[in-house]
Q: What sequence folds into this?
């Protein structure tokens, strides 16, 4: 099978601050519901920016270890169920993209002496226990991790695998929040992607998963197809993204899918709300689509979920599938005055926009210059 | 999916060449001094695993003939620092796959405990910022050497090094890169000692350059070993069965029962170099290259992980074509 036809998606699963399933998350996004909330897991008085997009699962008990693992298992179980797979996964590959692994548990171990076995740093241990999975891989590729894992999954399908599960997960670490708090002169009040007054990003939590197939089960049509995934690296700077390299990844994703900018109906922007990301992402899109893309609608969901880091690429992809199925694009919150580079982009604002959509582009770029771009088609 | 190795680089206390990996020991050896190896400049903000990884990576790229120069940072006339190295193949054609489980743990713990002790973030040093994301080693390697292909950070537990080699072969098979730099690196520090319970963990890095046999032939690169037949299974017995046949030697995980591959010469590298976590698999492949360089015959199996872990991974390494087969290292 050529990659142009695409790899069938047989099931999806997702959890985030604004919902515990793809449907809940999509509905929250379309309703303009933000998951931003005063910190739940950390001591608020330590930080000038004291709000995060956490999942509310802890009650008042303070923080607990193992939350990333739990969210990952939840998202994978949803995707496996929707695909009609047996939960005993055996040697079906499970590829997990993550920025921060179980590092929050390591922090609790170091700070409070909470027991934490080194074997639970990677997710294979829990995946073996829960699903009997042995072909498991944890890839720690920062904020593009789940799309990087998606590229690896499509390569396994191309090499002959029948079924591959790809997932992403992250919870917030105190070290990452702390260093951001230390470096920011003013803490962002919220995530405002592509807005002139954007002040930076705020981390979120969540997990995302898809089941990919080599061939579609005719009795079980899935929500769409992965048409192609491109990955590269800036090799430029740790935190300053490189627009030229991002543009190269976008072009490569188009080439792999046999599509051009004129075919793209929807762009799920990486849109972290940092000065550097949004400017570089906008310049890269202009380089490929031109300054005023006529067709593609765009949206940046991190304005409601926060930056879900390793989970974010697949979060965007799953939302794109819902958007194409329902003909509805969720809005971007906090975007009042677009930056000049994106002034003529059709970024959906204020309210969800109805649209007829067939093909979406998903952007994910990470710390260290790791870029990934996926093209995904809806069910037709 | 298969590949050939065309370069090896080591930053291993007590071993300066791949041939020494099955004969030497870290005991009593001086630690690797990254500043002496690759220059002090540019290392200050990096964690120990990344420093070690840069040294091994530089040597592997040079050995494979993908790069010339010692890759030290120099500042000429007060301008931006430049890297004293020249890549001899297109930057987009070289992917980086790094394996490390414990690399940035000390930085994460240091920041988290400082916040708690001080009741805020005031005392945090910005120097830690880049180290808090686990992919710092893979991205720093890309930045130092200008490698713009896919960049993967594998943190997959005890099998992670062999898993990284597997993903390198997937990148090659999928046409995403023509050459892949694979690095395994782990640091020894108090956080690692406390978390793993190991008093003397591995404090080093090993690197390989992998490419297709055709790509190696095209640029007349000498082949050091072939790599093929990766498996990842639920048990040690299952792994050895899946690898099939009987090797001439095997690189064994440390607690491997004597009745696994009985009579086959085994090298438990962690007995020599300390528990190596995510670096082990890459170190094993480097040791197999050394085995072949010393006239040893193939195939050689590399096996990482035990029945106490989530899985056991294995890989088959073959002697370069034209090398002697059938004698070399005899049955012990």
A:
């Amino acid at each position: 099978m050529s990659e142009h036809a695409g790899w069938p998606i047989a099931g999806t699963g997702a959890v985030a601050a604004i919902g515990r399933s793809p449907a809940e998350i999509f509905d929250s996004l379309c309703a303009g519901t933000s998951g931003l909330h005063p910190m739940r897991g950390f001591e608020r008085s330590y930080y000038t920016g004291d709000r995060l997009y956490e999942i509310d699962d802890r009650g008042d008990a303070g923080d607990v270890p193992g939350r990333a693992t739990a969210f990952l298992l939840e998202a994978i179980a949803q995707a496996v169920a929707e695909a009609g797979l047996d939960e005993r996964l055996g040697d079906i590959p499970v590829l997990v993209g993550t920025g921060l692994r179980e590092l929050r548990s390591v922090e609790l171990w170091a700070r409070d002496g909470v027991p934490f076995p080194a074997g639970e740093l990677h997710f294979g241990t829990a995946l073996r226990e829960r699903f009997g999975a042995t072909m498991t891989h944890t890839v720690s590729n920062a904020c593009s991790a789940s799309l990087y894992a998606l590229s690896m999954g499509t390569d396994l399908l191309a090499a002959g695998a029948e079924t591959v599960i790809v997932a992403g997960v992250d919870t917030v670490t105190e070290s990452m929040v702390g260093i951001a708090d230390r470096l920011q002169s003013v803490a962002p009040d919220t995530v405002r992607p592509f807005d002139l007054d954007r002040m930076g990003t705020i981390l979120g939590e969540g997990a995302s998963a898809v089941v990919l197939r080599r061939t579609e089960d005719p009795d079980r049509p899935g929500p769409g197809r992965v048409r192609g995934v491109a990955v590269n690296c800036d090799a430029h700077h740790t935190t300053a993204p490189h627009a030229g390299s991002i543009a190269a990844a976008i072009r490569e994703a188009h080439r792999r899918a046999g599509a051009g900018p004129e075919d793209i109906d929807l762009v799920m922007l990486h849109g972290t709300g940092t000065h550097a990301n949004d400017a570089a992402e906008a310049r890269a899109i202009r380089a490929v689509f031109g300054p005023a893309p006529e067709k593609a609608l765009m949206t940046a969901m991190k304005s409601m979920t926060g930056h879900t880091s390793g989970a974010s690429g697949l979060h965007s992809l799953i939302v794109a599938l819902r958007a194409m199925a329902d003909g509805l694009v969720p809005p971007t919150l906090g975007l009042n005055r677009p930056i000049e580079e994106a002034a003529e982009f059709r970024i959906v604002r204020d309210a969800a926009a109805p649209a007829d959509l067939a093909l979406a582009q998903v952007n994910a770029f990470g710390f260290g210059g790791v870029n990934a771009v996926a093209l995904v088609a809806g069910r037709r | 999916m298969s590949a050939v190795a065309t370069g090896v680089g080591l930053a291993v206390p007590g071993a300066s060449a791949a041939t020494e990996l099955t004969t030497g020991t870290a005991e009593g050896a001086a630690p690797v001094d990254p500043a002496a190896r690759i220059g002090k400049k540019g290392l200050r903000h990096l964690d120990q695993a990344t420093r070690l990884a840069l040294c091994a990576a530089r040597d592997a790229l040079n050995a494979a003939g993908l790069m010339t120069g010692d890759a030290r940072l120099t500042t000429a006339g007060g301008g931006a620092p430049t890297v004293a190295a020249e890549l001899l193949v297109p930057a987009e054609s070289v992917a980086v796959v790094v394996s490390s489980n414990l690399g940035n743990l000390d930085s994460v713990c240091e920041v988290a405990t400082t916040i708690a002790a001080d009741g805020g973030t005031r005392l945090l040093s910005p120097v830690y910022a880049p180290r808090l994301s686990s992919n710092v080693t893979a991205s720093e390697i890309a930045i130092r050497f200008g490698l713009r292909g896919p960049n993967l950070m594998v943190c997959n537990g005890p099998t992670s090094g062999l898993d990284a080699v597997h993903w390198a072969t997937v990148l090659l098979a999928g046409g995403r890169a023509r050459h892949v730099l694979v690095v395994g690196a782990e640091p020894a520090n108090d956080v690692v000692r406390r978390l793993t319970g190991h008093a003397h963990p591995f404090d080093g890095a090993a690197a390989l350059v992998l490419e297709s046999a055709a790509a190696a032939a095209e640029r007349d690169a000498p082949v050091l070993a072939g790599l093929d037949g990766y498996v990842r299974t639920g048990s040690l017995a299952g792994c050895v069965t899946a690898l099939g046949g009987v090797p001439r030697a095997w690189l064994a995980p440390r607690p491997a029962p004597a009745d696994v591959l009985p009579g086959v010469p085994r090298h438990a590298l962690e007995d020599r170099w300390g528990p190596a976590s995510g670096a082990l698999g890459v170190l094993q492949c480097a040791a197999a290259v050394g085995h072949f360089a010393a006239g040893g015959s193939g195939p050689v199996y590399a096996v990482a992980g035990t029945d106490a872990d989530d899985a056991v991974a294995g890989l088959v390494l073959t002697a370069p074509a034209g090398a002697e087969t059938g004698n070399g290292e005899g049955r012990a």
In short: Chain B touches chain A through 64 residues (CB under 8 Å). The first strand of chain B starts at residue 3 and ends at 11.
